[in-house]
Every structure is written in structure tokens, then in C-alpha cells.
Design a protein that fits this description.
It is globular, with a radius of gyration of 17 Å. Helices cover 41% and strands 13% of the residues. The protein has an eight-stranded parallel beta sheet, covered by helices on one side. It contains nine helices and eight strands. Helix 2 packs parallel to helix 3, helix 3 runs parallel beside helix 4 and helix 8 runs parallel beside helix 9. Bound molecules: pterin-6-yl-methyl-monophosphate (PMM).
């Protein structure tokens, strides 16, 4: 799945099958509308559909495993049966295992394995790609954990520790993808600093995924009172800059504006190298 730096980043499209995610909560909360949305995102040009059944917005409550799986597994089964590439957005090892059985190709774990001690075993056994996101604690506590000596050095070193542990569990290093975890125990300033230093994260030698889409820190660059969907514009700009910084992929809500952003980058890149 990960490609070379000269290729355009992969588009991972967000499909939250939840009543309470911050931007699209409740919109695709039932199985049929979630499947329809997944097909729509695929047809719009997403490379992979990231299906999640637990909101991770600041302050969100945890969801029970059975409820999480009831939300995501039927959606994953239907999408993968149609040949659509799917990732599971979960920090629960049992849900990751069930999603693997339902055909996902990537396990996207916002906790980087810290929320569930069984996660790395499941990842190693499933042999799937694994996204380890930088994380310090669950939604209720995370903003209190946004303290760093140097956010770039600290996030890099904490992710390096995650990778070392993954390798101990026998996970194939060629299947590990890293993510700075924008907005997770990070202030706006931390997020911008991490974006501005993606090369330092890339220097760990793993593909990097960036998830800035519609996040609150983008309100800084918007007029006061702008609706959340208006954040697709700065998200797209970040996508172009992240492509230039050599990321493997971007996790986004809006595929159409992401495709335009990547077309701009690809044309610019071709102009620069041709
Ligand atoms: N952000 C959210 C959820 N899952 N996964 C990865 N890998 N990276 C992220 O930045 C990330 C994620 C929260 O955003 P959402 O509520 O829009 O899904």
C-alpha cells in the first residue's frame, strides 16, 4: 500500500459510523447510509475508506466493544465485498481482529497500541498494515497531556518507542505507517509545528499519514464563525503542503477538494522535475 515519495499521497476518506464525531457525527450512523457513503467516497476517488465506530473528539465517552463492532463490521463487510479498500479506525484489539476477518487492509489505531495491550498481537497475527498514531491518553484526559519540551522531538521519540515495541511483537516493519496525531494532546501551536517539521517524522524511515481534516486548529485561519465544512479549504491546502513534504497519505472528510489539492501538487511536481 505505501508508495514512493514521488507518487501523490493516498487519500484515506473518513467514514465515522458514530452519533457523536465532531464534524460528521450522526450523518452516517445507520448501516445503510454508512455503506452508501462509503461507496460514494470510493467513487469520488478515495484510495481507502477509514471506517470508525468510536468518536475520539475531546471529551467523548468510550463505546462498548459489542456496540463498536455492531456499527462497523456490517459496513466493512459490504464495502470489502465490493472490492473497496477499507481501514478500521479502532483502538480496540477485538474490533481490529473482527475487522481483519471482515477484510480490512489497514488497522488505524489512534492510540498507537497504548489503549489495548492485545493490539500488537492482533496486528502481527493479521499481517495487515498498521497506522500507529501519536497518542497520550483517552479523550477525557488528553488536552491536559499537551505538554512537551519540544513537540517535534517528543512526538518523534514516542513514536519511535511504539515502533520498537511493534517490531518486538513481530510486526513487519514494511507495514508500519506513522501519524503525528494532530489535535490529540496537542494545542494548535503544536499541530502547526508538527506540520512544519514532517520531515523529522519521516526521518524515522516509515510512511507518514496526516489527519488535519476539519480539525479545530484550522479555525485559526478562518473568519470568525465559519462553519466546520468551510475547513475543507485549509485542509486541502495542508494536503498540498503535506504532499510536498513527502507524506504517504492524508486522512480527509472531503475527497473532491483533496483531489484538486493533489492535482495541483502533482502538476507542480511534474513541472519541477520535468
Ligand atoms: N483523527 C481522528 C480520528 N482518527 N486517525 C488517524 N490515523 N489520524 C488522525 O488524525 C485521526 C484518526 C479524529 O478526527 P475525526 O473525528 O474527524 O475522525
Amino acid at each position: 500500500m505505501p508508495s514512493t515519495v514521488s507518487a501523490a499521497p493516498a487519500i484515506m476518506a473518513i467514514l465515522n459510523v458514530t452519533p457523536d464525531s465532531f464534524s460528521d457525527g450522526g450523518k452516517w450512523a445507520d448501516t445503510d447510509s454508512a455503506i452508501e457513503r462509503g461507496i460514494e467516497l470510493h467513487d469520488a476517488g478515495a484510495d481507502v475508506i477509514d471506517v470508525g465506530g468510536e468518536s475520539t473528539r475531546p471529551g467523548a465517552d468510550r463505546v462498548h466493544t459489542a456496540q463498536e463492532q455492531a456499527r462497523v463490521i456490517p459496513v466493512i463487510s459490504e464495502l470489502t465485498a465490493r472490492g473497496i479498500s477499507v481501514s478500521i479506525d479502532t483502538m480496540n484489539a477485538e474490533t481490529a481482529r473482527a475487522a481483519a476477518a471482515a477484510g480490512v487492509s489497514i488497522i488505524n489505531d489512534v492510540s498507537g497500541g497504548l489503549a489495548d495491550p492485545e493490539m500488537y498481537r492482533v496486528v502481527a497475527e493479521a499481517g495487515l498494515y498498521y497506522i500507529a498514531m501519536h497518542w497520550r491518553g483517552h479523550s477525557h484526559d488528553m488536552q491536559a497531556l499537551a505538554t512537551y519540551d519540544d513537540v517535534v522531538i517528543d512526538v518523534r521519540s514516542e513514536l519511535k518507542t511504539r515502533v520498537a515495541e511493534l517490531l518486538v511483537w513481530g510486526v513487519d516493519p514494511a507495514k508500519v505507517i506513522l501519524d503525528p496525531g494532530l489535535g490529540f494532546a496537542k494545542t494548535a501551536e503544536h499541530n502547526w509545528k508538527l506540520l512544519g517539521h514532517l520531515s523529522e517524522l519521516r526521518s524515522l524511515g516509515y510512511p507518514v499519514l496526516v489527519g488535519a481534516s476539519r480539525k479545530r486548529f484550522l479555525a485559526d485561519v478562518m473568519p470568525n464563525g465559519a462553519p466546520t465544512v468551510a475547513r475543507d479549504e485549509p485542509t486541502a491546502m495542508i494536503t498540498t503542503l503535506a504532499a510536498q513534504a513527502g507524506v504517504w497519505g492524508v486522512r480527509v472528510h472531503d475527497v473532491a477538494s483533496t483531489r484538486v489539492a493533489l492535482a495541483v501538487w502533482s502538476s507542480w511536481h511534474a513541472g519541477a522535475t520535468g
